[in-house]
Design goal:
With 432 residues, the protein is of the alpha+beta class. Helix content is 41%, strand content 22%. It has 17 helices and 17 strands. The strands form three sheets. A nine-stranded mixed beta sheet has the order 1-5-6-12-11-10-7-9-8, sandwiched between helices. A hairpin with a 5-residue loop joins strand 3 and strand 4. Helix 1 runs antiparallel to helix 5 and helix 5 packs across helix 11. The protein is elongated, with a radius of gyration of 28 Å. The two termini are 45 Å apart. The structure holds histidyl-adenosine monophosphate. Histidyl-adenosine monophosphate binds next to strand 6, strand 11, strand 12 and helix 13.
Length: 432
């Protein structure tokens, strides 16, 4: 027994799991097409500076960072957004807006491995660049709802907020960005007492602390009532009021699409990434306490990377976590089972014929396996049965003289001699 194992936090995906992953990926790609997002492929390795710039302390400290052999400080990407923003600031700088871009692939974070948290994981990521309008935010939320429903997940719940609410209050108190970021990080980790203590020690007033306390406690499924209350709580903090109004507009657009989307508004909601400037959200399935996806508006990142000021909003969905949620909800895959064929030459000298026929069938888009173990027909048939193969094509000398083979339906256990030129038709039209 080999002593080699996967590295901690890394996983193999065996055929059944790989199939489920690829199914989710195909739905994500289809969702991208349905919403007009063009797929791009960006590198797994990026410059450390780019990835670290606005990732937030939590992700920054968990990056797989190293020096390459050319002494460059690089890292494995922990997310896609920085790479897409880099493109918009450089190569795609002059592309007409809006730009809708989609990526799917693996990401790396040195997180503590646990249920739904891995060191290598997959995301489907959508970025809408160039619009500061609430309809762009609404589109990103709708798109997430479409994807969750299209993979068959039920009863997903959206948690929504706006970073401008807390930041509006904190910046009114003249708290520096750095302190604000730290407060937001603590809020994201639900360490509210530590967050408040930090704000207080940085000079936040009593009124500010009380306001934040009230905001943190304010959450509700009646979104418009919650938004009204939030507006009351932040009265006097102009930027926070604007943020609440913006969130309200987005919520109106989302709720008026006619599609039922379950949303809870959390006034004190914060997310770990530092680049957010507007609406933020996460989506959950009731069976899994971890977010299946998250995103929000980030209007200043592209400028920070040296590009034109470009408002942007986006989302990333955790494919691994969607997979877990589907397994917990016992979602059945609605994929068509393809017929599979095993070609078995009766004798060693007929293997050339087996390969030739296999090629003809594949050219007609029929998946084929050829018996390559040199087994006797009975053994090979037993194996084909075990693999739940639909048909066996048995090549024997007697039939071959008549330009024919035996086709056996392994489910029905019936067989017939069929001319080679009729194999494709027989299989495609279920004539056996
Ligand atoms: P994020 O919230 O860091 O956002 O990640 C998005 C999703 O990726 C999470 O909701 C989760 O499903 C999945 N995910 C994150 N870390 C792990 C992990 N260790 N194991 C398994 N799944 C994980 C972003 O990455 C932003 N770039 C989203 C975005 C795009 N915002 C604007 N545009």
């Amino acid at each position: 027994m080999s002593a080699f194992r996967t590295v901690r936090g890394m996983r193999d995906f065996l055929p059944e799991e790989a199939k489920l992953m690829k199914f989710i990926e195909s739905k994500a790609r289809r969702t991208a097409q349905l919403y007009g997002y063009k797929e791009i492929i960006t590198p797994v390795v990026e410059s450390y500076e780019l990835l670290a710039a606005k990732a937030g302390e939590e992700i920054r400290s968990r990056m797989y960072a190293f020096k390459d052999l050319g002494d460059r400080k690089v890292a494995l990407r922990p997310e896609f957004t920085a790479s897409v923003a880099r493109l918009i600031a450089t190569t795609l700088r002059n592309e007409p807006k809006p730009l809708r871009l989609f990526c799917v692939g693996s990401l790396y974070r040195y997180d503590e491995p646990q249920q739904g948290r891995f060191r290598e994981f997959w995301q489907s990521n959508y970025e809408l660049m160039g619009s500061n309008k609430p309809e762009a935010d609404a589109e990103i939320v709708m798109l997430t709802d479409s994807l969750m429903k299209s993979v068959g997940l039920k009863n997903c719940v959206f948690k929504m907020g706006h970073v401008g609410v807390l930041r509006g209050v904190l910046s009114h108190e003249k708290l520096e960005d750095k302190v604000q970021n730290e407060v937001m990080q603590l809020m994201d980790k639900k360490q509210y007492d530590d967050a408040l203590r930090l704000a207080e020690s940085a000079g936040a007033s009593e009124k500010c602390i009380v306001t934040i306390q009230k905001l943190v406690e304010l959450k509700g499924g009646d979104v418009f009532e919650t938004v009204e209350k939030a507006k009351e709580y932040v009265r006097g903090y102009k930027r926070a009021v604007d943020a609440v109004m913006n969130l309200c507009e987005i919520l109106k657009l989302v709720s008026e699409t006619g599609e039922k989307i379950d949303i809870t508004v959390e006034a004190g909601f914060a997310r770990g990434l530092e680049y957010y400037t507007g609406m933020i959200f996460e989506v959950y399935a009731p069976e899994t306490p971890i977010a299946l996806g998250g995103g929000g508006r980030y209007d200043r990142l592209i400028e920070l990377f040296g590009g034109e000021p470009t408002p942007a909003v986006g989302v990333a969905h955790g494919i691994d976590r969607i997979m877990l949620a589907m397994q917990r909800q016992k979602t059945t895959l609605r994929t068509e089972e393809e017929k599979t064929i095993m070609i078995i030459p009766i004798k060693e000298k007929l293997k050339r014929e087996a390969l030739k026929i296999s090629r003809t069938l594949r050219d007609a888009d029929i998946p084929v396996e050829v018996e390559v173990m040199g087994r006797k027909v009975t053994k090979a048939l037993e194996d084909a049965d075990r693999r739940e193969t639909s048909y066996a094509i048995i090549i024997g000398e007697k039939e071959l003289k008549e330009d024919a083979v035996v086709i056996r339906n392994l489910k029905k256990r019936e067989q017939r001699v069929v001319k080679i030129e009729n194999i494709i038709e027989t299989i495609k039209n279920n004539k056996l």
